[in-house]
Design a protein that fits this description.
heterodimer, A: 224 residues, alpha/beta, Rossmann fold, 2 domains, 12 strands, B: 516 residues, four-stranded mixed β-sheet, 24 helices, 51% helix, globular
């Protein structure tokens, strides 16, 4: 352990008037880490079913994403093709190894689908979200071969599929499902919470979309 | 009014001797005030008054600052109005940070263990110099030629860009505002909107000056065109960078995770594409759990930009894992102290709750008038006025706590409920005690103090002063010139007394009360 580390901790303890081995202090820390108490959860997030879905859509649209509901997973490729066509974009799509995406009938569309992370040359990408938060219209993306992180940021247009059943009311509920998946005190390498397309207001406070990340964010919610 | 403020200042605790922080510094073998002064980015905070005068005469700056007054305040208010739980969340956010600061040694140890467990590396740095050395060592080991940088105030505080250049590594700022000010060789004038002091035409001129490989006749008359150009130029830099450096909004002890919050996505490209990701953070960024971060996130974006959530909130835990097709091969966290550990247990501990949202400066009449550069160091506005003297010493930053009208708006909007005006008062008291205030102010206060402590002398003396002031202002109701008071009267008249002193009136009122 470095001298700097020990000295910083020693100064901290001197300033706080503690020695670091006090049982009540250690217990307070262990207790908080074990219980991870929730605090104040906004009432607006405490909705279920159709109301929750409507809240997610409203909030995501307020964040300047577009949202479309489809009845089942099999309808995703057609919706992706429609979106690209209506937006006058080329019929190309970069996706990861997600088995949920692989099971979709891409061959029924004219889309040119390629697989893997992005090296910066892809105009359009499609990812499957881990879940979403209705309270703020936020998508939750986890890293890995299934949905490479580069697909969230390098392409100009990002399409994201999310299952309606995996949309939670609050961010705390989403953290609960994350813990259930990855284990207590564990995290995926990267968790991206995404609320709308990239933007900047650094020039005269004028809001402009498409700063460094995607210019457009299209969310496809699978209801079935 | 002026005397009222002086009375308030006098009546507060003015205990002498060394503070805990100074004692701690002395034990480490450093002089009480200048622990880190020579090791951080250069300060002009001493010349605050001159800087402020210059800023108020700068027409371009004044035009740019008008956006702060209108946009930030209205957006925050609208976001706050839509969340009935906002006030309750401010309380939980404050409580979370207070709990964390009281147990910071233990949470830091846990955080370090969790980062190591996930394959990352934690580097502690006592000073700016140590932090720079850690970053440069990593860059050298990886043979880095260019590094991309997400916005980091710690990077500014330690003067990292200059050090990287000296080491032969090219730093490229990727946040649009930071990129613009890097082209101009400036430091940020606002902690979340670094180029808020500039107008569109100034940015256009800089892009034309620097992007000489592009068509000189291109149209850059719209902000969208400027952004598109920056996106194009920086995309190549992102893909070419060897190392990516970001700041951190939170370090989570529970999981060993660092969190960044951005709107542009530049931070994510910075940390995802290169061989190594280096996180720069200071010790007080530690937050116990994921849930605690979720609480504070609810007040952060609303207070900063008036968004419910920023576009990208990214949680990073360790380097690329087996089977990952992308992500950095190495993950390093540099945890900077630079004087903060000695702030604990002092009157300035509450300042360590700050989450750098910028709401205090967005609502500050002084910031609105002079912008951020006049403050002379990295952190402007009310939070800078409190933090700067803590980090670079009162001798250097002692002017800043005087840059306040004590209107209290900063404290009223602070999501972490930091008592900023109160802490500015503490600094003013210390400035007075250490004889750092200008001599006329010091002697004036001492003279006033002499009388204030002796009521029998105070009453006739104030009566005499009132009489003299009334004489000066006879017939006009105001005094156009005061000896030793030109600082006041060169800009506005001093109101002349209306009738007898307050104490005389109070006495008279008491007598009336008894007789009725």
């Amino acid at each position: 352990m470095s001298v700097a580390r020990d000295e910083i901790l020693a100064t901290l303890r001197r300033s706080l008037g503690v020695n670091g081995v006090e049982a009540p202090r250690r217990a307070a820390v262990e207790d908080r880490l074990a219980r991870s108490p929730s605090g104040v959860i906004p009432k607006r997030s405490q909705v279920t079913g159709a109301e929750r879905l409507a809240l997610f859509k409203r909030q995501a649209e307020e964040g300047l994403a577009t949202v479309v509901l489809v009845p089942d997973a099999a309808s995703v490729p057609a919706e992706a093709a429609r979106y690209l066509r209506d937006s006058n974009l080329p019929a190309t799509l970069r996706i990861g190894d997600d088995p949920r995406l692989a099971a979709m009938p891409w061959e029924t569309t004219a889309l040119d689908v390629s697989k893997g992370p992005s090296g910066g040359g892809d105009l359009n990408a499609l990812s499957h979200a881990f879940g979403a938060i209705a309270e703020t219209g936020t998508l939750a993306m986890v890293s890995g071969a299934e949905n490479p992180t580069t697909l969230n940021f390098l392409p100009d247009n990002h399409l994201v599929v999310v299952a309606a059943g995996e949309i939670t009311g609050s961010s705390e509920e989403l953290l609960g499902t994350l813990r259930a998946r990855y284990g207590k005190e564990k995290m995926p390498r990267t968790l991206n919470l995404i609320t709308g397309p990239s933007r900047s207001a650094d020039i005269e406070q004028t809001l402009i979309l498409g700063a460094h990340g995607p210019r457009k964010l299209h969310v496809i919610v699978v209801e079935g | 009014m002026m005397w009222g403020a002086i009375v308030a200042a006098q009546s507060r605790d003015t205990s002498g001797g060394l503070t805990k922080a100074q004692e701690a510094r002395a034990k480490l073998g450093f002089p009480p005030t200048a622990f880190w002064t020579p090791m951080t980015v250069h300060s002009t905070a001493k010349a605050f008054k001159r800087n402020a005068v210059r800023a108020m005469q700068d027409e371009k700056l004044q035009r740019a600052l008008s956006h702060v007054r209108t946009n930030f305040i209205a957006k925050r208010q609208s976001a706050v109005d839509k969340l009935p739980e906002f006030e309750a969340l401010r309380d939980t956010a404050r409580d979370i940070k207070n709990h964390t600061l009281a147990h910071l040694d233990l949470y830091l140890e846990r955080y370090e263990a969790k980062v190591t467990e996930s394959g990352g590396h934690v580097h502690f740095a006592r000073t700016a110099e140590e932090a720079r050395a850690v970053v440069i060592d990593i860059c050298r080991r990886l043979g880095a030629k260019t590094v991309t940088k997400g916005k980091s105030m710690i990077g500014e505080e330690i003067g990292l860009n200059e050090a990287l250049e000296d080491a032969g590594v090219k730093p490229v700022e990727t946040d649009l505002g930071e990129y613009i000010i890097q082209l101009r060789g400036e430091i940020p004038s606002h902690i979340i909107a670094p180029a808020v002091h500039l107008n569109r035409d100034q940015v256009e001129a800089d892009f034309r000056r620097v992007h000489t490989e592009l068509d000189p006749h291109r149209d850059l008359s719209q902000p969208t065109q400027l952004l598109a150009e920056a996106r194009h130029i920086l995309r190549e830099r992102f893909l070419a960078a060897d190392v990516g450096i970001t700041g951190a909004n939170f370090l989570i002890a529970e999981t060993g995770t660092s969190v960044i919050v951005t709107n542009e996505g530049n931070g994510d490209l910075t940390q995802t594409l290169p061989k190594a990701h280096i996180v720069l953070a200071s010790i007080e960024k530690i937050t116990p759990t994921l849930e605690d971060v979720a609480q504070i996130l609810r007040v952060l974006a609303r207070s900063a930009t008036g968004q419910d959530m920023s576009v990208y909130t990214t949680f990073s835990t360790g380097p690329r894992r087996a089977g990952d097709p992308d992500g950095p091969g190495e993950y390093h966290v540099v945890i900077l102290d630079n004087g903060r550990s000695a702030m604990l247990g002092t009157q300035f501990q509450d300042m360590l709750r700050c989450i750098r949202c910028g709401a205090c400066m967005n609502h500050c009449p002084v910031y609105h008038a002079i912008g951020g550069h006049a403050y002379g160091w990295v952190y402007p506005g009310p939070m800078g006025a409190v933090l700067t003297p803590s980090l670079i010493g009162l001798g250097e930053g002692g002017n800043l706590p005087n840059a306040s009208t004590f209107c209290g708006r900063c404290e009223a909007v602070c999501p972490m409920k930091i008592p900023l005006p109160g802490m500015m008062r503490h600094w003013r008291e210390r400035e007075f005690e250490r004889h750092l205030a200008p001599a006329p102010q010091r002697y004036g206060l001492a003279l006033w103090g002499f009388f204030a402590k002796r009521p029998r002398l105070y009453r006739p003396a104030t009566r005499l002063a009132m009489w003299a002031l009334a004489l000066f202002g006879r017939g006009r109701g105001s005094v156009p010139f005061l000896p030793f008071g030109a600082g006041w009267t060169s800009h506005r008249d001093f109101p002349s007394p209306q009738g007898p002193t307050f104490q005389a009136r109070w006495q008279a009122r008491g007598k009336q009360g008894k007789s009725s």
